[in-house]
């Protein structure tokens, strides 16, 4: 099972209470299931509005169950934010 780092930004970081943490997951869907299990409540609500980068590549509209994770990879959790 790949080991990945999930990094939280802005509102996701505040809701998780940490900047990043490790997970074991083969797909983005599995990683997010782990996140929801570890952080029920506010972070679950924030995740519904987030976009995701996997190893620097935008996930976009792809199904999270189809996005494979590589060992040592990174998932960035990006809530919507204003500014530029």
Characterize the structure shown:
- The mean pLDDT is 95.
- The termini are far apart.
- The chain has one domain (3-78): Beta-grasp domain (Ubiquitin-like (UB roll), Roll), CATH 3.10.20.
- A hairpin with a 2-residue loop joins strand 3 (51-54) and strand 4 (57-58).
- It is an alpha+beta fold.
- 27% of the residues lie in helices and 26% in strands.
CATH homology group: Beta-grasp domain
Summed up, the helix count is 3
Task: Give the SSE string.
Answer: EHEHHEEE
Strand residue percentage: 25-35%
Examine the coordinates and then state which fold CATH places here, giving the name of the CATH topology: Ubiquitin-like (UB roll)
Radius of gyration: 12 Å
- Number of structural domains: 1
| Second CATH tier, the architecture | Roll
- Shape, per Cα inertia axes: globular
Computed structural class: alpha+beta
What would the average pLDDT be, to the nearest integer? 95
The unreliable regions are none
**Helix amount:** 25-40%
Number of strand elements = 5
Q: What is the CATH domain class?
A: Alpha Beta
- What is the CA-CA span between the terminal residues? 37 Å
Main β-sheet description? 5 strands, mixed
Strand order of the largest sheet: 2-1-5-3-4
Protein name: MoaD/ThiS family protein
InterPro entries: Beta-grasp_dom_sf (IPR012675), Mopterin_synth/thiamin_S_b (IPR016155), ThiS/MoaD-like (IPR003749)
Organism: Streptomyces venetus
């Amino acid at each position: 099972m790949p080991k990945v780092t999930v990094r939280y930004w802005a509102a996701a970081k505040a809701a998780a209470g940490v900047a990043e943490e490790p997970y074991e997951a083969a797909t983005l869907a599995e990683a997010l299931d782990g996140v929801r299990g570890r952080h029920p409540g506010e972070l679950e609500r924030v995740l519904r509005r987030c976009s995701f980068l996997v190893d620097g590549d935008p996930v976009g509209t792809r199904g999270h169950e189809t996005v494979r994770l590589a060992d040592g990879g990174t998932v960035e959790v990006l809530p919507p934010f204003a500014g530029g």
